[in-house]
Amino acid sequence: MYIDIHTHAFHPKIAHKAVEHLNEHYDVVCAGSGTIDNLLESERRAGIDMCVVLCAATAPAQVIPANNYAISLQKAHPGQIIAFGTVHPGYEQWEAELDRIEAAGIRGIKLHPDFQGFWLSDERLLPIFEAAQGRFVFEVHIGDRISPEKNPSCPYKLAAILDAFPQLEVIAAHFGGYRMWAHALKTLMVKERPNLWFDTSSTTPFSTPQLVKTLLKACPPERLLFGTDWPLYDPQEEMQRIQEMGELSDSMMDKIMSNASAMPGLLHRDKIPAMAAS
């Protein structure tokens, strides 16, 4: 089963504004409109069976609405969409909210510190991570165009979290560090971490073929997950780009496209099995 692990889709009322924001922030022209219908059409055209739609609250007050939207998407498109909910360290009722979204069948949580307005090193996240171990997969945005010490998210901050919470299941977006790949190679990819996966999203448009090959070689093959960051990039184009730049065989490409289907807790509602410390 082919899965796109990293997509975004917005309510029709705000999709246009959300895409405009993405275009401005990342200096791109988004390939999609940002609506769920356009997302599913793009995935079907690429031969992708399912996609993970990531929702993130940019303020504490948006946690409930964002999670309600995630729940509604998953219910409306069974077998096509896996929705990830959200938390925010400023939202005081996070324990009850974790219980609520877990009961609703949400398997994962998206964190985007840069857009959500907190640092990944925020101590208020620590009890949330502790409570979420064995219950949710976290998809975490990592990196930006500024230096790690000035960035709310970076490979070093994620490495510290993984060391502190060895049972926390984490997908490090963008090969572990958007525009910080040298730092990801020095931190996240030098130690065996059985609780860590890497998605391929938003990397190839900014990389050389040599860098793509280096990143692919540094990651355990079974820990690589295909992601597009739609609506930023088209699934068909991204599949072609990573295969060509990485000089990947068809069998290796098939593995990257289907690895997500083997992730604990992603395609079923059972709790994620606890894992030994790395």
Automatic annotation (TrEMBL):
A Pfam family hit: Amidohydro_2
Biological process (GO), any one: secondary metabolic process
GO molecular function: carboxy-lyase activity; hydrolase activity
Protein name as catalogued: Amidohydrolase-related domain-containing protein
Signal sequence residues: none
Amidohydrolase-related domain: residues covered: 66-259
UniProt cross-references to Gene3D superfamilies, sorted A to Z: Metal-dependent hydrolases (3.20.20.140)
InterPro entries: ACMSD (IPR032465), Amidohydro-rel (IPR006680), Metal_Hydrolase (IPR032466)
Keywords tagged on the record: Lyase
Lineage: Bacteria, Pseudomonadati, Thermodesulfobacteriota, Desulfovibrionia, Desulfovibrionales
Native source organism of the sequence: Desulfovibrio intestinalis
GO terms under cellular component: cytoplasm
